Amino acid sequence: MEIKGTTKITGVFGYPVSHSLSPLFQNAAFQHLGLNYVYIPFEVRPEDLKEAVNAIKIFNWVGINITIPHKKEVLKYLDELDKTSKILGVVNTIHNINGKLKGYTTDGDGFISSLKEDGKFNPERKNVFIIGAGGSSYAISGALIKSKINSIFLTNRTYENSVKLREHLIKNLKFKNIEIIEFEKRNDEKIWQNIDLLVNTTSVGMKKNDPLLIEKKNIEKVKFVYDIVYNRKTELLKSAEDLKIPNLDGISMLIYQGAISFEIWTSKKAPIDIMKKAIYKKIKI
Ligand code: ATR
């Protein structure tokens, strides 16, 4: 990549940011399409976020991804928000439009594209079991509802957080078919008779000795397993594979949410296959 006077700058603000896989596939995509753009990781400490966002305007950067721990905090420094980020209160993509910063959240739509394109699974009219009620769960459950699923069974370690998510979905998306399952009761066999899709939205599985939260006899009954963890093959994914149940890990979601950011910034169709190749050359989970 030749850096010139006209090179357009994109990147990611995070803390930490050194583990980010986005530079790998975003730069490969720019290069493939011959776009004179570059994607750079920026380590931004929480106390510096305001000034870092201002720098987007000062340096006239095209766009920035926002990752942990800034996704909520960044909202107050932006000029405009798309509908989904306004509803969810999170932003993972900023676009600099003539000096005005607009925030988007592409995680939910990225999840759905990944599920449909890579997983060949259409969530319409399906019953979904979701583990977790954090930021990722808000994005994913909201996007699943927009994709016309039938019902959600929701479980979370902290009960109150699942109640908050349920209330949020009822209020903002008018979706009422959500049953909260107490965390201790998540393996009750009767829940699992009719589940099509199981999604883990928590960080459980990222570490080597993390437990399998759903028993194999229940996993066996579902048609598709999605685990958003992307740094290693989780016990959940290993079980799905043993049971020959179609499954996806978080790398697929990572690529599709990044592809939407790419399209926001460049107005060009993202070269998904090139992005995948770039990432899978380095990582095999
Ligand atoms: P993110 O934005 O990535 O979703 P988050 O908002 O911190 O991150 O949410 C993390 C989710 O993982 C939450 O649902 C959290 O459960 P709590 O609401 O009880 O905190 C869940 N989680 C994290 N560690 C967990 C663990 N060891 N066991 C079960 N759930 C866990």
How would you sum up this structure, described in words?
The protein is of the alpha/beta class. The protein folds into two domains: 8-105 and 252-282, Rossmann fold; 121-245, Rossmann fold, CATH 3.40.50. The chain has ten helices and twelve strands. It has helices at residues 22-33, 49-58, 83-88, 107-117, 135-146, 159-173, 216-219, 235-242, 250-266, 272-282; strands at residues 8-14, 37-43, 63-66, 80-81, 93-97, 100-104, 127-131, 151-155, 178-181, 197-200, 224-227, 247-248. The chain has a six-stranded mixed beta sheet with strand order 2-1-3-5-6-4, sandwiched between helices. The two termini are 28 Å apart. Bound molecules: 2'-monophosphoadenosine-5'-diphosphate. 2'-monophosphoadenosine-5'-diphosphate (ATR) is lined by residues 132-137, 156-158, 161, 201-204.
Provide a concise account of the structure shown.
The chain has ten helices and twelve strands.
Can you identify the CATH class of the largest domain? Answer: Alpha Beta
For the biggest β-sheet, the strand order reads 2-1-3-5-6-4
- How many alpha or pi helices? 10
Strand content: 15-25%
Q: Which fold does the CATH topology of the largest domain refer to? A: Rossmann fold
